[in-house]
Amino acid sequence: MDLLSGVASPRKREILRLLWDRERSAGDVHRALGDVTFGAVSQHLKGLADSGLVNRRGHGRHRYYVANRRALEPLAAYLEATWSSALARLALCAELEDARRGPRPRARARKEHK
């Protein structure tokens, strides 16, 4: 996963926001997100850690994560601006809601009656 694909997903950007200023456990991230399964959070965290966008440390059975600001430095100003902007926050909420619902069914082609 490269830098841009790491932040392309609204869910991953939200996880990075949670990990930006402090280390959190996977369970803390899961509880903060609320509308996603622990398994999905775990997969996102693993992908972000494997790509070097977050740092991971283990302590017993728990894993703790924090954003790797050095790796994210080229996009830090953009990320911080979107997190602090009310309009950007609203857009993120809309993207997350849309992603949670999944793809919309395609409209059926209407048949002409003669």
Number of discrete domains: 1
> Care to count the β-strands?
3
CATH topology: Arc Repressor Mutant, subunit A
In CATH, the homologous superfamily goes by the name Winged helix-like DNA-binding domain superfamily/Winged helix DNA-binding domain
Summarize the biggest pleated sheet. Answer: 3 strands, antiparallel
How far apart the termini lie comes to 53 Å
Low-pLDDT stretches: none
The Rg value, from CA coordinates, equals 17 Å
In N-to-C order, the SSE pattern is HHEHHEEHHH
The first-level CATH class is given as Mainly Alpha
Name the structural class: alpha+beta
Report strand %. Answer: 5-15%
Helical element count? 7
Task: Assign the CATH architecture.
Answer: Orthogonal Bundle
Mean pLDDT: 80
Overall morphology: globular
Widest sheet: strand order? 1-3-2
Labels describing this entry:
Arc Repressor Mutant, subunit A, 114 residues, 7 helices, three-stranded antiparallel β-sheet, alpha+beta
Please describe what this structure looks like:
With 114 residues, this protein is an alpha+beta fold. It has one domain (3-101): Winged helix-like DNA-binding domain superfamily/Winged helix DNA-binding domain (Arc Repressor Mutant, subunit A, Orthogonal Bundle). Helices cover 58% and strands 12% of the residues. The chain is built from seven helices and three strands, in the order H-H-E-H-H-E-E-H-H-H. A three-stranded antiparallel sheet has the order 1-3-2. Strand 2 (54-59) and strand 3 form a beta hairpin. Helix 3 (26-33) crosses helix 4. The chain is globular and about 65 Å long. The N and C termini lie far apart (53 Å).
